[in-house]
Amino acid sequence: MYRVAIFAYDFPHHKTNDFIVESKLSGVESAGVIGAPRKALPSYGHFIGYRPLPQPAPRDTAAICASFGLKYVTLDHGDAHAIGEHVRRWGANLAIIAGARILDAAVIERFRYGIINFHPGKIPETSGLDAFHWMLEKGAPAGVTAHLIDRKVDAGQFLFFEGAMVDSDDTLATIAYKIYVAQLVALRRVFDTIRKKEPFESTPIERPNKNPPMSDAQRAAAVVKFAEWKKRFARD
Questions:
Q1: Which of 11, 139, 150, 236 could form an S-S bond across to 156 if both were Cys, CB 3.0 to 4.6 Å?
Q2: How is the chain split into domains, by residue range?
Q3: What is the CA 5 to chain-centroid distance, rounded?
Q4: CATH number attached to the domain at 4-233
């Protein structure tokens, strides 16, 4: 029923690495991987407010695909025509985002069953680039929104919210890591649906406005709210 393509980055990237590995471990056959080349992006500041937990260096995307025997192509994610040709050749009808540029309607429409994204936060509260800091600012729960995308960023059709457990001894870094792990858990739930050949139950996401990128000062102000946020959501 489903033939899954993966949108990824064409350079070493942790989420891309992990999603491709998870797809292989899931037993769901991937139709192919579409890697977007690196390009310069606008800078909206550098303040994070914590030091991320250390991770091994990510591997090259093409090398991982080759080791798994996966079809791989490097394409601009805005090239709807070229993507459409590969979708047709691979017989892909559903896509998963493991790293992608903004995908416009012409690309989304190439997939019969749509494209699934995993946003690291609750939509609509944490829409936009600074999901982690909007979570703190708005007092939203920690977790990941799985959704079918549409032409509006961080909108479309809601599939489910995968929550991340919060403990009283968590730090900003451990919460960020737990949210990342929640993405992998959500991905496994999606692969389970694909493997069972079940339809995806969805509801429309109401998101009138997307959160704008935060300044360094806004991120710093959000981080100050962490203790209050943790007290609200900690399970012990």
A1: 150
A2: 4-233
A3: 15
A4: 3.40.50.170
